[in-house]
Every structure is written in structure tokens, then in C-alpha cells.
Amino acid sequence: MELLRLFSLKKFGLGIAIIIIFNLFINYGIHTFYKTPQMDDFCKPEAMRKGVNTKEKCEEVDGLWTENMNYRTPIPPAPTMMEGIKGVSTPEMAMGEPAGWCDAYFTCQKDFEKVNNVYKRNVFIVWMIAGTIAIVASFFLFAIESMSIIFTFAGLISFLVGTVGYWSAIQDYLRFVILGIVLAVLIYIGYKKLKDNN
């Protein structure tokens, strides 16, 4: 009885290990062969440090300039009687609010988001394919019941990781198409294999 319980625990531990390693394998495969886009490749920080405080400088770095509606031209100070005497400094112009603001990252961030959304879409597809392969494999391992269950859960975790991590980057029509294909494959394999085993 004790030996049987120990064997069951070993099978359970092996199952959890396979599920975790399968999904880590997919994850590291993606990160090894399909690099994540980096914001610094699109928006160069050194270009933003040059003091982008005019419309012209803002346009040079492909930024978006927003005019300040409350801006007034700086007013020169009134001359004083002390002006011109050695050691007395001339008052500087009184500065009001800035003429506007520059969103220096406007264009490069849009470029980054476009590339990043394509990346997320492709990674989502990889996770869906990995999950489908794992579940399809579980039907071919039907003779070994525990392995069949392990691969079913490995596939379910892949679906979950892909959906939670990358769902927001996918357009509605693409979600519908991908999920439709995965569902059709799973129903077909399930029907064929379960029918053959009955």
C-alpha cells in the first residue's frame, strides 16, 4: 500500500515536472530564436538629451510639438538707475511659461508599438500551436494514461500563457480565426481518437 502511494506521488511529480519544463522550453525557444523588440532600438535616448525646447528641435527628432496657449513673449525688464555701474549686473528678461512642449518619443514610440504588436501576435500563434501539438500528442499517448493526461495539461497551460501574455495585441478577426483553427483541430482529433477507442 505504501509502495503504491509512493509510486503515485512519483507519477504526480513527474507529471508536474513535464508540464513546467514543456512550457519553459517553448518560452525559452521563443526568446532564443525570436528576439523581443527593444524600445531603445527605436527611441534613441541620446537624441532626447539635447534639449528639445523649440518646435524646430522637436521636429528634428520626429517629435510632436504642442503649443502653449498661455504663452506670452518674455518681457524685457525696465531699466534701472544702477544699470551700467561696474559690478551691477543687468537684470535678465522675465521668463513666463514655456512656448510649448515636445513629446520627443511620439513617432518612435508609434513605430515601436507597431513592431511590438506584430511580435506579440506571432508569439501568441506559437503558444497556440504548441498547446495544440501537446493536446494532439496526448491522444497518441492514449495507451499510457498518465502521459496522455500530462500532455493535455501541458497544452492547456500553453493556451493559458499565450492568452494571458499576448491576447491584447491580437485583432478581433485574428483571434476568431486562430481560435477557430485550434478548436477545429482539437474537435477533429478528439472525435477521431475517442471514436476509435470506443
Task: Explain how this protein is built.
By secondary structure, the chain is mostly helical. It has 2 domains: 11-39 and 109-197, no CATH class; 44-104, no CATH class. It is built from 6 helices and 2 strands. It has helices spanning 2-33, 45-48, 55-60, 106-140, 145-166, 172-197, and strands at 64-67, 100-103. The chain has a two-stranded antiparallel ribbon. It is elongated and about 80 Å long. Residues 90-95 have low confidence and may be disordered.
Q: Which features characterize this protein?
A:
mainly alpha, 198 residues, two-stranded antiparallel ribbon, 6 helices, elongated, 63% helix, single chain
What is the gist of this entry?
By secondary structure, the protein is mostly helical.
